Structure of YeeE/YedE family protein:
Amino acid sequence: MENLPYGALAALVGLSGGLVLGLAARLGDFCTLGALESSIYGGDHRRLRLWGIVLGTAIAGCYLAQAAGYIDLSQTLYQSVRWNPWASIVGGLVFGYGMALAGNCGFGALARFGGGDLRSLVVVVVMAVFSFITLNGPLAPLRITLFPQIGAESSQNYADLISGLTGLPPLAIALPVAVLCFAWALSYAPLRRSPRRLVWGLLAGLAVVWAFVGTAWLADQSFGEVAIEGPSFTAPLGRTLIYLMTSTAGGITFSVGSVIGVMAGAFIGSSIRGLFRWEACEDPRELGRQVTGAALMGIGGVVALGCSVGQGVSAFATLAYSGPVTLACIGAGAVLGLRHLIGGFQPG
């Protein structure tokens, strides 16, 4: 292990965390769009309330790790860049609407592809391409003009904000928030009777903490060569695609490891449950809808600096200003998209 380059070590951190998240998707039914669909149209709130377990675990774990000196959350992307509310709102809405059209977010598409759904491979590739079109390609100048990313000069999280007003340490702010997340989740009796989901919700939250702590240790050891990262699946899809095609453009990184880990975990999980089966798209209109949705997610995710997992879990875990706002806008965009689809709207 000592002879491995730091990028490879970061990839192993991402691979192990991604493996757990992929298993959580398949064995614990952890899915953003699926949670909204089953809650709104199926009357089953277990998957939605599971988010309380994931977030409660991630928030408590991250702030306990910071209090213990294992990580400085201010060095994460979500807090080192000045929060742009419009980027969170516009990017979140665009991402959420695209998620509904595509039938999955980037994380969900990776998990479904790991289960044999070839349609999700189309979503992953198109989303990866459009994320880099927006990040560094033809749409980059427009993105930079409309949603400039400026380094933060002050704290960008709710825990430090409230700490400054009350004098309480950030941990004393974060732990009650985590408790509220757990209470919201466990107040729903059907979820309490689903130990499988509860266990995988805890493990998914711990996977996020592991990612931050692992990359923080590597960042310290490498003198900043490795960035402190949590799981996210928008621009990392593009980085992984480029790496698989060229083995260059930044080389192997945490992003590459986490993407491959989710697919591997999903494959293992779907195989354990006997759910692995090859599926393909037979309806050209469905394919057009998925391509459109994937393109929107690639654009929206880069604008918002993260996806339903990147902002909705990783940024939320640090209590960054952007996390709850972006997650709420992703949810609103997804609900709007689902209503359009149910009403018969078909793009293209």
About this structure: The mean pLDDT is 94.
